[in-house]
Structures are given as structure tokens and as C-alpha cells.
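#lab-general

N.A. 3:47 PM
ok so I finally got the sequence cleaned up, no stray characters, all 369 residues accounted for. can someone with queue access submit it? mine expired

B.Y. 3:52 PM
send it over

N.A. 3:53 PM
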Amino acid sequence: MSRIGFDARLPAFHQGGIATWIREVLNALQSQNTAHHFTIFESRKARSSLAGRFRRSTLYTPCHHALEKYALSVEFLPKGLDLLHSPDFIPPLRGARRHVITIHDLHFLHYPQYMTRESRRYYCGQLGRAVRQADHILTVSHATQRDIMDLLQVPVERITTQHHGVSHEFKPLSTALLDKQRRELKLPEDFFLFVGTFEPRKNVVALLEAWRLLKEQLPDAPPVVLAGRRGWLFDETLQRIEDLRIAEDIIWRENVPQESLPALYNLASALVMPSMYEGFGLPALEAMACGTLPIVSNVSSLPEVVGDVGILVDPKDRDALAAAMMRALTDSDWKAEQEAAGVNRAAGFTWENNVKVLVQVWDQVLNDA
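B.Y. 4:20 PM
back already:
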């Protein structure tokens, strides 16, 4: 029986992104029958455990600390692990006999100007070592797999793609439940929705500028709901809203509870996600699962997620984005077809499939040892 460790510290510090991936993977892993002995390594600051039926162990080293790779190595040294999975890119210098890492995206190489200096230093300064050290690399989209091959010169046989899944609570909801959630979230009858971190890479400013163009053609256009949390260079977004004089048409819903997200998607006229880069783009998948039309960028992984559903636009083309939003409001028959197609497409993305790929990679690495 092999001893596998899984670094699950990040959810104690963050809620979305990689932390969501960790929570969903560990939940799906509970139902897998494997011959391995699992230990879930969590931060001492974790308020609740994700370990479930697996053994839990506490780590004191915080995520993204300057000395993390050294401190983690000391903590893992007595564990005697056969394999350690590091889902947040960077493993310790040596935590086990074999290492698997997950690279979720390489936006910090494509758009370094969109990151804080500290984040650039953390990822860019250690990524080369992490890639060389890893016995295998997992990633969440074929687009990111191509980035890893092109930007980091990693051969294809060392990389495996495992798409995100979509949680079961993301689905079309009843009218009665949605009416209740609309009142609780204080939302209008119609609105465009953005879900994510408010930062330059997400291209929120393009959405706002496109909406302003839409407003000129359609004075009663529904407002925009920005749901998420404030990120890097958030003040630039606020300044652009002021410049466009659209503050009264922007509805902020920061830190929406996870249990309210399915209703938020259901209630939206369309999800608008004009990101410059996404490693996967989970909100697009969640929106489709809820029967909501996705309007997304035609770059990186997003075409891979939505397929033929919704509308793909150039993230730099405000006119095209405004035209897509106009169609979502005016072409009701087409919109209904797209919403149904989105539900069907989303059904093919499951966390159970994700974890099957994960276990296969672990088995492969251990068998090659």
C-alpha cells in the first residue's frame, strides 16, 4: 500500500480558484476505491477539515511564504511519503519519493503586468524548479497543456489534462426558489452577470465599456452585476466606472456565499466573461449547468469549455461584446436553444471523471518508480 500525501493548505487562506479545485477533488476522492493510504495535509489555521475518511495531518508552513519550500521540506521529511501531490504549482524541495504537481494556468508568464510583484516573484522564481522536479504534471485544460509545452519546454508525455467538474448544486432551479433568492440577494428582474476576481486579467473594464455601448443603443438595457472579490489594481476598475458615468447601473455583490451562486447564475440574463486569459474558466461551466447563456472570450481555455454553446468574442473588441449582449436580450428563441445546449454540455464535466484521471496518474507514477 503506497502512502500518498495531498497538500490541502490553500482553502484555509482562499475560497475560489485553486482552493475550489482542492475542495471538489477531495470530496470526489472519498468515493474512490484505491489501494493507497492517503494523508490530507491541512493548515493549522483550517477551521474545518476536508480529509473526510482519510487521515489528516497538520502543517505549520503558510502558503506562498518566502521560505515555504524549505520549511515544507522539513515538515514532510519524517512522513515517509511515496508520493506527494502539490495542487498549487510549487512543491517542497523534497517531500516524498515522487512528486506530482498541478499547473492550473500560466497567466503570470503571459501577462506579468497583471500580477503583484510578490506573486510574480513566488511563481516565476520557483516554477522552473517545480517543473524539473515533478515526475508528472497535471493541468486543467488542453490550452494550458499547450502553454506548458511551449513556454516551459515540457514534453507532452509528462503532462495529463483533467478538466474541471461542475458541482451538483449548479443546475436549473425552481421559480419559487429563485424568487426567494432574488429578494435575498436584492437583484433586479434582468441583469448581465460577471463572476470572478475584479482584476485586469479578467477584463472587467471591457465588459463595462461594452455595456456602455449597449446602453447607447438600448436605453433600458439591464444592469451589470459584478459578483466576486476585489483583486489587484481594483481602483482602475472603479475609476473607469466613474469615467463612463455608469455607477448607478453597476450592482456589486462581493463575497457571495457559495450556496447562493447557483441561484445567481440562474437569475442572470447571461454570463459575460471577457477574460484575457483563463486556465479553465469555471464560471462559464457553472453558468451552463444552470441553464444560463455564456458570452466568453475566444482565447485560451474558454472555447474548450463552452464548445458551440453561447457566443465567443474577441476580448479586445468592445463592439462585438456589445453585439453579443444585444443578441442575448433580443433573440429569445436562439437563447432558449443555447441554454438547453449548455445544460447538456455541462453534464459531461464531472468531478468524478476528474478524480479518475488523478488516480490513474498517481498509479502510473508509482508504478514507474
